Amino acid sequence: MTQHPSDNHWHEMWRDNRIGFHQSEVSAFLEKYWENNHRNVFVPLCGKTKDMVWLREQQHRVIGVEFNETAIRDFFGENEIEHTVERKENLHLFHNEHYQLYCNNFFDLPILSEVEIVFDRAALVALPIDIRKKYVEYLKKITPNCMRILLITYEYDQQQMSGPPFSITHDMVKDLYHDHETIDKLDERDVLQLLPMFQKRLSFMKECVYQIHR
Ligand SMILES: C[S@@+](CC[C@H](N)C(=O)[O-])C[C@H]1O[C@@H](n2cnc3c(N)ncnc32)[C@H](O)[C@@H]1O
């Protein structure tokens, strides 16, 4: 089983209900920039995000991974979604006909050949610098038929806060996804006034959205 020193941090956050990253609303950039022309969507490091419910409402089949079991159980419980739990070798799967959520470490996932599109909100930005490259490479490896990634990041002065979330600049996105066909920054917005927990530490915080084609 893959492990990184930062994994415990996430389990402690879920245990203590310190989940400021969880939004009660669907991501504004997801609603604005989603192109609904594929069926199978992968949501890496999915938490219990409502974005998955919205994606399902757009008729997608949602494949997710999240290594904290409370998060996955809360997702199905809070949204009153019936499901089955199954263990197959080292995989712990919560699923029904619309959702397939792996309660596993992202880096232990098998090839997901059905995935056509990836939605990354607060996944890349959650990872420390030493594993970001590995994340992008592994994402590419396990989604060989993925056409497109919609990526949402945060940008702020990394000197003012250690993260997570980590600040990811446009240059970092270009560097990480350099072997992809196109990387387009679609939009950005100031979000500091929406996120009181960062207001004391940061002088600015932007949310950015990118579309990456393979
Ligand atoms: C910042 S949260 C974002 C959750 C979700 N994308 C959202 O928008 O609410 C990052 C999530 O990734 C999970 N996580 C972190 N590292 C992981 C890994 N290697 N494998 C699976 N899940 C991981 C954490 O438990 C946490 O729920």
Automatic annotation (TrEMBL):
The protein's Enzyme Commission number: 2.1.1.67
PROSITE patterns reported in the protein's UniProt record: SAM_MT_TPMT (PS51585)
Subcellular locations according to the entry: Cytoplasm
Keywords for this protein: Cytoplasm, Methyltransferase, S-adenosyl-L-methionine, Transferase
Record SUPFAM superfamilies: S-adenosyl-L-methionine-dependent methyltransferases
Pfam family of the protein (one): TPMT
S-adenosyl-L-methionine keyword on record: yes
Reactions listed under catalytic activity: S-adenosyl-L-methionine + a thiopurine = S-adenosyl-L-homocysteine + a thiopurine S-methylether
Enzyme class label: transferase
Cellular compartments per GO CC: cytoplasm
GO terms under biological process: methylation; response to metal ion
Keyword Transport: no
Major subcellular location class: cytoplasm
Superkingdom classification of source: Bacteria
Gene Ontology molecular function, alphabetical: thiopurine S-methyltransferase activity
Record InterPro entries: SAM-dependent_MTases_sf, Thiopur_S-MeTfrase_Se/Te_detox, Thiopurine_S-MeTrfase, TPMT
Family as reported in the entry's similarity comment: Belongs to the class I-like SAM-binding methyltransferase superfamily. TPMT family.
Name of the molecule in the record: Thiopurine S-methyltransferase
Organism the protein comes from: Uabimicrobium amorphum
